[in-house]
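Feature request disguised as a bug report, sorry. It would help if multi-protein outputs had a clear separator. Right now it looks like this:
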Amino acid sequence: MGTTGVTSIGMPGFDGWLIIVGGHYTTQIGIGGITKKVVKRGESMEERDFLRFLISVDHDIIDGAPLARFSSKLVGMLENAALLD
């Protein structure tokens, strides 16, 4: 059994940050701002929105494999907003 802390640090112009698990939280989730980046998609370049999102866990309590599955599912849901309904 554990607890999760969620924080939003999406300040405009603030691009670098780190979440450190401390205190009584097993998992910390940090949600940052949305930034635009140019990425290659197929043969073309396009500007896309990116959400800065960080999950930090106490590895003494949470194993890597379940966390990887959770992270992968969460990213898939965020990339396809229809799954969030």
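(second protein starts here, but nothing in the output says so)
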Amino acid sequence: MKKVHFLSRKQDVIVQYLIAPVRYSKVGLLERGFQTKIFFHPSPRCLSCDVLCLVSKAILPMLGDKSPVLHPTGPTIGFLEKARRYANKIVWLDSSDSTGVTHFELLPYVDLYLKKQLLKDRTLYQKEFYGGRIFSEFYHSTFGIEDELPFNQFYPLCPGFASKVDLSWNIGLGDMVGSFSRNFYQRLLADHRPPNYCFPAVAPDDSRKNVDVFLRTSTDLGRATIAFHRQELVRRLRKLKTDWDFIGDINGERLSTKEFRNTMMRAKIMPSPFGWGELGVRDYEAFIHGALLLKPDMSHMETWPAIFEESETYQPIDWGFGDLDTILCELLSDHGKRNRIASQGQATYLDSISPAGMARFCDWFVEKLEA
């Protein structure tokens, strides 16, 4: 029996989305010879294990390390050197938001570097992108968007360490429904409780669906090359709503949680723009509530579970918005196509969090840790 310890953080919803399937699959992993336990403090008991999994969004704040590139004499690498004295194997779980933001300077100090989304072309990790992301580079070079401050968190992937880099699982296996509840963080105190994967999904052809397009997103993200995509998508959708007079709620006034969820249930199409990264909670909320997911093309990246299939489970649009008008017009008029993609997206997502999906997660987990 191998002991696998996770060093995590309670008050971070993205971290908890990532940890959720581990909590849910305790028994399944135990049956496969892996005894998992989640810790919130780096005690010797936490570090003493066969495999130590360190969630980046938990570790860096815990150590107070804000360096863009982690220094060999800094607290993070010092901690990894200390952990090496206790753990047989160290896995860094990169929970950063985008494919582009990495800490490859840690590769000499860990055995495995797992990231929830990766560029398909790994050679691109030797290239420095403007704004740190492949899409921020696009908006800079195509639309001339400039950031006030440079993004200086870049460390190229050394080919000699490339074999350590692999996919982890993404936030889609997280407790998307439970995080709406007031006692979400209190529930985490008892880490044996499974996430709330039992919920009534809304069918894409539900008669209550009378909102053509629903979008709620923050547009002030602090960096111009990151915010531009959201701001431009909101601007264009609002113009189309005025020109075409469809029923839409495009970044309107603030809604209560109850109103927000009720509107998602009534939505036919839910755009989910890029933000700090490619994947977001809105993607999965669209699946849950039976809406068609309209999203920038993600063919440049890979993630797991691989539920994002172009024109099958989501409808991609061009990063430069050149096809937005045509695609939206088709989706609003072609109910059959819209419902087909929405239904397939919902079914694929629900399968990923089903008991069979959790069994696949356990197999995936074992495969990665035994590599």
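Even a blank line would do. Unrelated, but nice: Residues 2-194+355-369 form one domain.
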